[in-house]
């Protein structure tokens, strides 16, 4: 009785109280747009030919043939113009890998039909994690600009997927990625709102010079029992030179998550609510395959109500590789599980299996610098945890000015196992009494506040 009364009281005070974002940080899409206006290209030549198409009259009025034709017409120097106040419904898979010097001005909305059986039969397929795609973008010098919406119409997909797991070997309910590009060189997206993707929001494969700026990404379910699962904002395979600057993200999985083979990534200013964090990887999950992530700079991150803030993920056994030269800088934490997390046992494997097939992904030259804010209390007073695999080397991992506190009170603690040499601040082994009592000291944090769900 007493216990349940206490937990009811705890729940009430948790629901009433909230953790405020520091002054000046945008609290809504509206404030984000005001603070970070969309920047046009300085080098854009005037007089590009404008091509336009008729708008859809209703949610099944598919204009994909006209859209494809218009992109062919705008290719080599023109612009496809999709004005505000109009919706353009896409009901068929589109191969857009032929692009060369083309722009899309998207002020209106591109919306995909939600005919699940049709898309599951006809969408493009990618072997990685059994992905399907509405369309494929690719080519050279492609620019997409505007304050319009790319709408994946995900609600039906989330409802019907509910209760399943994407990587379950028996899962046959495949969901499309909202924006997919392969073999793209020079793809620059500005301003667009990526909305309600059925599955991952973006996926860039074998591409170079990718840039996203002043973008909004949301996946918000209206059905309490159907979460927008696996709606990662950013995923990639085999990419070089990626820049993401100023993004507002409210989705249900990784906020930013390059996977195998990523080089030279620069990420500056993101606001991520309810995500799994800024995750390097997971890599090294596939048999015999070398994979790596290197040269990543990621700074000015506002991480709210999520799982981990800065994260390095390596899968157990089989694959091998490295994550080298990553700087995580200026991370504000509001109600995240661990503010820094290095995990050599991804994904969903128990400690015994992990110990039997240890990861062969080396993790080197990593900096966690200027971290502030508070965790969720899920792991008590432990605010960061680093676990290196016995089959790998984790070296030159440095914490500087790491000042994350626990809402449970008492001194915060960092746990580290198998890390070579000092991390520049005290840390203790998970088997120590200190770590055990810090982990046991659990509590429930306040929610980091945002006024309301995205109003569009
Ligand atoms: C949607 O619009 C198209 C084009 O005008 C029309 O042919 C179709 O009948 C409309 N469908 C519905 C359900 O209103
Ligand atoms: C909400 O999702 C559940 C699956 O979890 C589904 O059974 C139900 O029909 C959905 N509700 C609505 C209104 O679509
Ligand atoms: C990229 O282009 C190459 C050669 O043009 C082609 O073989 C390949 O299938 C394309 N797609 C990817 C994902 O590499
Ligand atoms: C922020 O994320 C939390 C956790 O997922 C969620 O409960 C909350 O509704 C989100 N806030 C907004 C404004 O969407
Ligand atoms: C990553 O790069 C390595 C080395 O070039 C290559 O062997 C491997 O197949 C690549 N992985 C992916 C997923 O393309
Ligand atoms: C480490 O990565 C940064 C980019 O974040 C890059 O400027 C630097 O040259 C890299 N260092 C080495 C040794 O490659
Ligand atoms: C990991 O580090 C060890 C020790 O330095 C080295 O022998 C091995 O080749 C490295 N593995 C990779 C994939 O770089
Ligand atoms: C540390 O990060 C916070 C935001 O997380 C930022 O406001 C502050 O300016 C940073 N400090 C330095 C010295 O860069
Ligand atoms: C770590 O960084 C140092 C200095 O830039 C470099 O010499 C070394 O090769 C890096 N380590 C690995 C494993 O790449
Ligand atoms: C660490 O953060 C707390 C607030 O969370 C602040 O009171 C304290 O001054 C900070 N310490 C340092 C060394 O920055």
TrEMBL record:
Pfam families: Glyco_hydro_28. Gene3D superfamilies: Single-stranded right-handed beta-helix, Pectin lyase-like. It catalyses: [(1->4)-alpha-D-galacturonosyl](n) + H2O = alpha-D-galacturonate + [(1->4)-alpha-D-galacturonosyl](n-1). One of its GO terms (biological process) is carbohydrate metabolic process. One of its GO terms (molecular function) is lyase activity. Residues 1-17 form the signal peptide. One of its GO terms (cellular component) is extracellular region. Belongs to the glycosyl hydrolase 28 family. Specific in hydrolyzing the terminal glycosidic bond of polygalacturonic acid and oligogalacturonates. This is galacturonan 1,4-alpha-galacturonidase.
């Amino acid at each position: 009785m007493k216990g349940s009364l206490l937990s009811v009281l705890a729940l009430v005070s948790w629901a009433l109280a909230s953790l405020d974002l520091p002054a000046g940080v945008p609290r809504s899409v509206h404030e984000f747009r005001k603070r970070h206006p969309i920047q046009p290209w300085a080098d854009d030549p005037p007089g590009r030919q404008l091509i336009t198409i008729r708008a859809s009259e209703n949610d099944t009025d598919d204009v994909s043939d006209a859209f494809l034709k218009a992109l062919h017409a705008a290719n080599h120097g023109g612009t496809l113009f999709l004005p505000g106040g109009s919706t353009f419904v896409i009901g068929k898979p589109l191969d857009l890998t032929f692009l060369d010097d083309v722009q899309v001005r998207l002020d209106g909305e591109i919306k995909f039909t939600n005919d699940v059986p049709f898309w599951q039969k006809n969408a493009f397929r990618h072997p990685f994690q059994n992905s399907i795609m509405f369309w494929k973008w690719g080519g050279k010098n492609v620019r997409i600009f505007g304050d319009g919406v790319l709408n994946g119409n995900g609600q039906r997909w989330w409802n019907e997927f509910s209760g399943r797991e994407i990587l379950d070997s028996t899962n046959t309910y495949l969901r499309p990625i909202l924006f997919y590009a392969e073999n793209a060189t020079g793809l620059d997206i500005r301003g667009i709102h990526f909305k309600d993707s059925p599955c991952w929001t973006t996926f860039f494969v074998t591409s170079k010079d990718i840039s996203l700026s002043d973008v909004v990404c949301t996946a918000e379910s209206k059905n309490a029992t159907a979460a927008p699962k696996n709606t990662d904002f950013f995923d990639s395979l085999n990419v070089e030179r990626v820049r993401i600057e100023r993004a507002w993200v409210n989705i249900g999985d990784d906020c930013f998550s390059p996977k195998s083979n990523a080089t030279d990534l620069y990420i500056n200013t993101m606001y991520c609510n309810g995500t799994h964090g800024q995750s390097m990887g997971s890599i090294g999950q596939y048999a015999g395959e070398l994979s790596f992530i290197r040269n990543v700079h990621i700074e000015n991150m506002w991480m709210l109500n999520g799982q981990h803030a800065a994260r390095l993920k390596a899968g157990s056994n089989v694959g091998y590789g490295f994550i080298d030269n990553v700087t995580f800088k200026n991370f504000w934490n509001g109600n995240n599980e661990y503010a820094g997390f290095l995990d050599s046992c991804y994904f969903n494997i128990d400690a015994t299996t992990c110990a039997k097939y240890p990861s062969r992904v080396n993790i080197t030259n990593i900096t966690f610098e200027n971290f502030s804010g508070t965790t969720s209390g899920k792991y008590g007073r432990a605010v960061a945890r680093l676990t290196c695999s016995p089959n790998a080397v984790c070296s030159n991992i440095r914490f500087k000015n790491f000042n994350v506190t626990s809402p449970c009170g008492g001194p915060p603690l960092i746990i580290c196992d198998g890390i070579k040499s000092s991390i520049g601040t005290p840390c203790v082994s998970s088997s120590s009494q200190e770590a055990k009592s810090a982990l046991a000291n659990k509590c429930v944090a306040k929610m980091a506040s945002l006024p309301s769900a995205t109003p569009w």
